[in-house]
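Give me the fold.
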Amino acid sequence: TALIVGVGFPLLVFLFYRDNPEQCNCNVDGTKKNLAKEKSKSTPRLKDFTLKEAIRTYSFWVFNLSLAIHALVITALTFHIASIFEVADLSQEKAVSVFLPGSIISVVLNFSSSWLSDFTKLKYLLMAHLSGLLLLLLSIVLLKPLPVGYWLVIIGYGISMGLFSVISNVTWPRFFGIGHLGSISGYVLGWSVVASSIGPYFFSLSHDLTGRYTASAFICLGIVFVLLILSFKAENVNRNI
């Protein structure tokens, strides 16, 4: 096994892996380059932002903080899903049952939004993603008093998870180029990792102090709502889409 992994895998990498699309005469989205069009002065060239330049832009922080609050909420939900349902007098089986239909929505939305991202501004996908998070957080509040809370968990989870991967992967090369993509995406990932580590503790603290998760849910709800408003002006700093 060690021989297969140690020799076979590097051989596959050597034969098939390429460091960037330009080595295959392709653009980032996989289409062949049109050299004549590229040379045209009417075709604007994308700027490769450095990390320092990127973090000075408004759009960077709206998208970055949106991904971070997503990581916080989803990690907290995953850790405390059984307890959240128990507080609402629902069974552990009921809690676990939200993930399968939520994942189906997520997969369908992931494929459709990936296709849609080629034709629409990413801020619209971000708005939909934040709306899904709003539904998910609202479901925590409404889970006990209203039966619809259960379905809001499924719908909110599916929407937010389905759009998360598209936004986290497409935004940075489209907005800031690929010249410094590693440092930019790494910086963003660092924020998400920190947020995901805070999420479970933040929600457990709410439960310890109040016996419920509504306090933490309302705080996150307010943050997501503010980000949703701010997302209306989160334009691509490099081009129209």
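The CA atoms of residues 102 and 157 lie 6 Å apart.
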